[in-house]
Amino acid sequence: MAAQIPIVDYLVLGDQPHLTAHECTSCGARYFDRRNACANCSGTDFRHVNIATDGEVRAFTIVTFAAPGVKVPFVSSIVDFDGTSARGNIINVEPTPEHISLGMKVKLATYSLGTDDTGTEAIGFGFEPINN
Amino acid sequence: MSDDVWILGIYMTKFGKYPDRDTVDLASEAALAALADGGVTMKDMGVLAAGCLMGGGGIAQQIQKQIGQTGIPAFNVSNACATGATALRTAIMAIKAGEADFGLAVGVEKLAGAGLLGAGGRPKSDKNEWTPSGRYGAVASTDGRIGTDSMPGVFAQVGMEYGHKYGGTSFELFAKISEKNHSHSTLNPKAAYQKKMTLEEIMGDMMIAYPNTRPMCSANCDGAAAAVVVSDAKLKTLSLEQQRRAIKVSASILTSDPWQEACQVLPDVNTLTKVAAKQAYEKAGIGPSDLDLVELHDCFATAELVHYDNLGLCEEGGAAAFFESGATWRDGTTPVNVSGGLESKGHPIAATGIANIWEVCHHLRGEAGDRQIEGAKVGLAHVIGLGSACGVHILEKSSFG
Ligand SMILES: [Zn+2]
Predict the structure, then answer these.
(1) Is residue B114 less than 8 Å (CB to CB) from chain A?
(2) What is the structure's pLDDT at B1?
């Protein structure tokens, strides 16, 4: 099997792809980016936590006009995964207001971004409707 | 003697397209007109603060080199869409600190013809190899792949999030807010656009990021605004006419966004506005029901809605019903954006946070002509710069003379 690389380092690939976060050991605040310290309590000690893969859409927009090089239309969303919010596209759905709703249940899904010259395949993620 | 600070002179250029004038031209026009409006000159100023977000820095000294190099301290400020309010706040702080009697604040921007703001991919590398970079270790541009970076999209989500939490929102409701602001702008000769638009025209226009169509987005344009502020003690030595036209700064607040769950996923424009509003009302000793008019940061129609709630103009969760009641139209109980707002008056970024104060002052002085809110005595001006910074100023009519 060819090597794979996730689109971002907080996407964990494997049999059960999921998102991972840095959780502040003092206050529990969670972050997806590389941290210097906690924005909530300034603590500097973090542990890795796995984020739930089933969630609920808290906000979305259907982007039909974007910067050059960004493929439209796409659905951007903010999803609540059991108390942790993540950002991502809603995928495997018609990008129209009739097909997407606030409160909709979604789950993490992955897809290929293509293979580079070294044979490595990049894997992206999105959120797809459950019971689609 | 009190530590009150007053707006002595204020001015905004007409917003629009100025292909033959640069930012220094526009800023100089606004600064000189604000000085003349206050009956003072550059020689009186003890401090200058200025901003031009897209200008690359040094705008304060560039202005000085055109209108007066008097050697005073010059602060170049940058705070996204709150840059103008930050310049004003800087000048006010200098006066409150007793470092100056008079201060000048200027904001200017040239944006006519600029495209989408906030978004953009990473430059393509020649070598075709996935390489992680940045704080997320991204191997490809995330805009469009992991949600949106575009301003219309981010603020669409802000409005949708409010709808999810409290209900009552719809594409049509957001479009009606835009209909109001475009209607208001027909009375404002300084607005970039003064064209009334029907609800059908707004909803049928080009969709940018659902539910924001093009007329529901702030209008990119050129413009500048400037304000002269003065200490209470100094104002009392000036003419009765200057004292009569002076507008009291009852509160000048600047906040940044406190940490909240999700704030690094979707910018939280609510908490810092709520905090700024609360501080401003306490400082001014007035409440939202005392406001005769409000200019708030309607960078998108979806943003205006949430700020009704954030500024306490309605009860928590009641923004949609508050708007539907007609309260925020110019003949309503709390007129909002009678200037036409950012959607129609326009949004030359760094000028916006002073231009909205000019609008409020204009009404408090009884000089707003056709769009005068009769008997206006108290007003509030609000801006949000994503990142985030929030400026709230409460202004009151002078009780002198
Ligand atoms: Zn912490």
Answers:
(1) no
(2) 54
Is residue B160 one of the residues assigned to a domain? no
Q: What does the pLDDT average to over B112-135?
A: 73
Spacing, Cα B259 to ligand 1 middle (Å): 10
Q: What pLDDT digit, counting tens, does each position of B4-45 carry? A: 999 999 999 999 999 999 999 999 999 999 999 999 999 999
Q: What range defines the domain where residue B31 resides?
A: 5-112+221-397
Other C-beta atoms closer than 10 Å to the C-beta of A123 total 18
Let me know if B81 is a catalytic residue: yes
Residue B196 covered by a domain: no
**Which amino acid type is present at position B169?**
T
pLDDT of residue A1: 59
What is the structure's pLDDT at A2?
Answer: 73
Please give the Cα distance from B313 to B3 (Å, whole number): 28
Full-model pTM: 0.96
Cβ atoms of B123 and A69 closer than 8 Å: no
Alpha carbon distance A91, B285 (integer Å):
50
Average pLDDT rounded to a whole number, residues B372-395: 97
What spacing in Å lies between the alpha carbon of B14 and ligand 1's midpoint? 47
ipTM value: 0.96
* Known catalytic residue at B184: no
What's the B35 CA to ligand 1 centre distance in angstroms? 48
What is the residue type of A17? P
CATH code, domain with B78? 3.40.47.10
For B214, the closest chain A residue by CA position comes to A65
Quote the CA–CA distance of A42 and A27 in Å, as a whole number: 9
B352-377 average pLDDT score: 98
Which of B322, B313, B289 has its CA nearest to residue B166?
B322
Helix, strand, coil percent values for chain B (each to nearest 5): 35, 20, 45
Whether residue B260 is contained in a domain is answered as yes
CA distance B213 to B231: 44
- Is residue B158 one of the residues assigned to a domain? no
Whether B401 shows a pLDDT value over 60: the answer reads: no
pLDDT reading at B122 higher than 70: no
Interface-testing mutation among B117, B143, B148, with chain A (most A C-beta atoms within 10 A)? B148
The per-residue pLDDT of chain B, averaged, comes to 95
Q: Does B271 touch chain A (CB under 8 A)?
A: no
Interface of A with B in 61-90 (CB under 8 A): 61-72, 74, 76-78, 83-89
In chain B, the number of structural domains is 1
Domain ranges across chain A: 4-129
B132 touches chain A (CB under 8 A): yes
